[in-house]
Amino acid sequence: MSAPDTREALLQAAESLLRSKGYAAFSYADLAQEVGIRKASIHYHFPAKEDLGVAVVEAYVAGVVQTFAGIEAESAALADRLKAFAGLFTAGNRQGRLPLCGALAAEMAVLPERLQILTRRFFLLQIDWLVKVLDEGTRRSEIPRGTDTRACACQLLSQMEGASFVGWVLEDACRFDTAILLRIAGVEEA
């Protein structure tokens, strides 16, 4: 495996371990076994576990930003955008994985400071995006004027993160009811 391929394999395996075991519960030995390399080889790419965690979160966040742009490009309707947002959580749930943001938040007390900062930024990124699409929905009269879009965005994200944890704990493909998200947002479906 070439160095770029090894680095990418490490990032993917580390993301999977973060979303299934948590940051504190996996080691470089776990990662080496998963990827099929020696532990020393991991240190070539990521000298410390914190460096690996930061790289995983940064890559994941970049993917989420692209996904959000794709959602916006695909549909202008608020209901469709919220359904697509819910679909991101549903996909992870089907794979038996927690959302990365939630998995990290559950361990905030033990995360290195750089990961704590990135985790907070990641939550804010999602909330800010939801506020943006909710504000657009308000301008298009898809939701009632006067809706506190920031509070609504926090509730929407909380609903999806919480449902993900319940589904994960119960080892069940917990049903994500997008109608609930639409009701939280005040969207009247046609």
Structural overview:
The chain starts with a helix and ends in a 5-residue tail after the last helix. With 190 residues, it is mainly α. It has nine helices and no strands. Helix 1 (3-20) packs across helix 4.
Characterize the main sheet: none
Per CATH, the superfamily is Tetracycline Repressor, domain 2
The whole-number mean of residue pLDDT values reads 91
Q: Mind telling me which CATH architecture this is?
A: Orthogonal Bundle
Total domains, how many?
1
Cα gyration radius (Å): 18 Å
H/E element sequence = HHHHHHHHH
Highest CATH level, the class: Mainly Alpha
Number of strands: 0
Percent of residues in β-strands: under 5%
The number of helical elements comes to 9
Global geometry:
elongated
Question: Can you give me a brief rundown of this structure?
Answer:
This protein is mainly α. Helices cover 73% and strands 0% of the residues. It contains 9 helices and no strands.
Give the tags:
mainly alpha
Compile the SSE list and pairings.
Blueprint: H1 3-20, H2 28-35, H3 39-45, H4 49-74, H5 78-94, H6 100-105, H7 113-139, H8 149-169, H9 178-185
Helix pairs in contact: 1-2, 1-4, 4-5, 4-7, 5-8, 7-8
